């Protein structure tokens, strides 16, 4: 696809693009990987700790404890986002803060807060799913496809 | 021991996300979408549950588990209600996550002023 875009440019634009690419600082890939690993691992560690708490003191079993854990993680993420802490952390952590569910909640909360000025319905309600929307849409379509495949291979039980 | 594996597996999934950012040059939205679809497919072949058994929150906290949960709901209802379950069951399991995210984000938008 990059080649197609390149062909449509004039020569000057192409030269500029090459120049811009040559002076663009290389991304510190290894450093970013290490940061993502530590931050993502730490968030999962917190999740595991919350889950253990629900299992030991909340009376949930191992399987059911996942739901309240996710809800608590999301609440924490929204609180940290509201205080402006999560976005600072995200700059350091990169994908380490974006990939866990907390990043999903962060994208929704920050979009909701940011678009307040456009009104409750069009701003908060409409823009909340700017990043979460694609995730839900493609997740749902993928789940539907997987469901169909299972139906075709194994056949549905019940009725 | 489960804490160690949660850290390692969760970290590894995030490094894969960072790999998509830096090496494949995908946008965050594309990366998250890819991870969710991967999670759905991995659960479709039945490998996600063993991973959660093994790594706990390391597998259930990253966004891949969202895809896993969508598939879980669909397959559960498919078993109990027949073909219509694929449609009715998709959001069965993820309800907690999506509802919590919507409700808390909305409340945040009511009470928090945007910064910067």
TrEMBL record, chain A:
One Pfam family it belongs to: SpoVAC_SpoVAEB
InterPro entries documented for this protein: Spore_V_AC, SpoVA
Domain of life: Bacteria
NCBIfam families on file: spore_V_AC
Protein name per its UniProtKB record: Stage V sporulation protein AC (SpoVAC)
TrEMBL record, chain B:
Annotated protein name in UniProt: Stage V sporulation protein AE
Domain of life according to the entry: Bacteria
InterPro entries (alphabetical): Spore_V_AE, SpoVA
